[in-house]
């Protein structure tokens, strides 16, 4: 879990968009097959609402149901060609995303988005970077609330004992993402 000192990463990859500025009755949903599994995205114009790896039909159904519950769109438009998979998996591609629900989550996700590509951190070190070293559990909760795979790189947060820990989209995907980032040129 050692951090590489010469990794290149653009911390400004994440560009926060206030939820109330994204007004629509239609959400575009895309599906792409990636090295890590089926990637589903939900977006409005050029703002990514969610990105999730769904491994089963049940995962897909749950994701679609949760999407409808969170955003209550009148229409969900399935887009045939997805530009999102490439943007999400390109480490320095800027992506507009909805600001998290609370200032604390936004602070955690902002620090998380600055973790260099190809490195990992611990929950405790994230809490220290936020100036709240005793808030490790709250930080872990904010990391777990991430609904935007890879862009907010929660896969880069590992336990202090060097194990991957939990991951919304599966430990195998978490490990694959980190291994591929470490081996990337």
Describe this protein's structure:
This protein is α/β, with parallel strands linked by helices. 33% of the residues lie in helices and 22% in strands. The chain has six helices and eight strands. It has helices at residues 57-71, 84-89, 103-113, 123-129, 136-144, 171-183, and strands spanning 14-17, 26-34, 37-44, 47-54, 75-78, 95-98, 121-122, 157-158. The strands form two sheets. The protein has a six-stranded mixed sheet. The chain has a two-stranded parallel ribbon with strand order 7-8. Strand 2 (26-34) and strand 3 form a beta hairpin. Helix 4 (123-129) packs across helix 5 (136-144). The longest helix has 15 residues, at 57-71. The protein starts with 13 loop residues before the first strand and ends with a helix.
Salient structural properties:
6-stranded mixed β-sheet; two-stranded parallel sheet; 6 helices; alpha/beta; 185 residues
Question: Nutshell version of this structure?
Answer:
The protein is of the alpha/beta class and 185 residues long. The protein has 6 helices and 8 strands. The chain has a 6-stranded mixed sheet with strand order 1-6-4-3-2-5. It has a two-stranded parallel ribbon with strand order 7-8.
């Amino acid at each position: 879990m050692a951090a590489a000192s010469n990794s290149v990463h653009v911390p400004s990859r994440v560009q926060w968009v206030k939820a109330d500025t994204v007004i629509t009755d239609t959400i575009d949903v895309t599906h792409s097959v990636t090295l890590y599994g089926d990637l589903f995205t939900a977006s409005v114009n050029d703002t990514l609402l969610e990105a999730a790896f769904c491994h089963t039909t049940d995962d897909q159904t749950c994701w679609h149901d949760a999407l409808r519950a969170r955003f209550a769109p009148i229409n969900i438009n399935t887009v045939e060609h997805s530009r999102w998979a490439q943007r999400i998996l390109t480490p320095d591609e800027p992506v507009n995303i909805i600001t998290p629900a609370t200032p604390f989550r936004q602070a955690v996700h902002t620090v998380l988005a600055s973790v260099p590509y190809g490195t990992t951190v611990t929950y405790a070190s994230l809490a220290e970077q936020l100036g709240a070293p005793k808030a490790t559990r709250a930080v872990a909760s904010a990391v777990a609330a991430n609904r935007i795979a890879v862009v907010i790189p929660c896969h880069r947060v590992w336990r202090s004992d060097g194990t991957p820990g939990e991951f919304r989209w599966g430990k195998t995907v978490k490990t694959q993402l980190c291994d591929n980032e470490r081996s990337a040129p």
